[in-house]
Amino acid sequence: MSEAATVRRSRITPEREAELYRAVLDLLREVGYDALTMDAVAARTRSSKATLYRQWGGKAELVVRAMRSQTPGSIAGIDTGSLRGDLRAIVGREDDCVMAQNAALMRAMAMAVHTNDDLRQAFKELLVEPEVEEFRLIVRRAVDRGEVRSDNPALDYMVHMLVGAFATRTLIDDLPPTREFLTSYIDAVVLPALGVPTP
After folding, report:
1. In this model, does residue 4 exceed pLDDT 50?
2. First to last CA, the chain
3. I need a labelling partner for 86 at 20 to 30 A (CA). Which of 43, 59, 106, 148 fits?
4. Rounded to two decimals, what is the model's pTM?
């Protein structure tokens, strides 16, 4: 984040910021990204539009930061001693209800991301790239431990595999992603592709 953005965003309390993010996510679920307006956010949160623009610059950054606020923290520090343990720990951070809500949010955003350049850029910079880098750290540790060969071609597709399972569960099976589904997917697909034995 730029120094200007840090200064810009430091003027409200963490509690107020969390309240605003909850309101944004509620509106996003209710009306979708395209119909969500800064006027509606201002009315819902008893804020001025000027304050919202001063703090977040625009709708795209506000929405993506609200989505990012729902992640339960960095995964980079997860180190159970095995890749299987690390991936299970990542899946276990959210219960099935939260996972289903997050999947619904991602579906609501999917079309908007492809049709809105500002949103796509904010989504990549503030949400996708930081999480992909954290996954790379976990995979790098698995390679360093000797669990995965550094030349395994599936390494480049690990994030795609995990995101794909999460994103397409509802589309294919008409069911939300769950811990049980993702854990079994990791054992059946991800780890075998990486050459990691499973029990």
Report:
1. no
2. 42
3. 106
4. 0.78
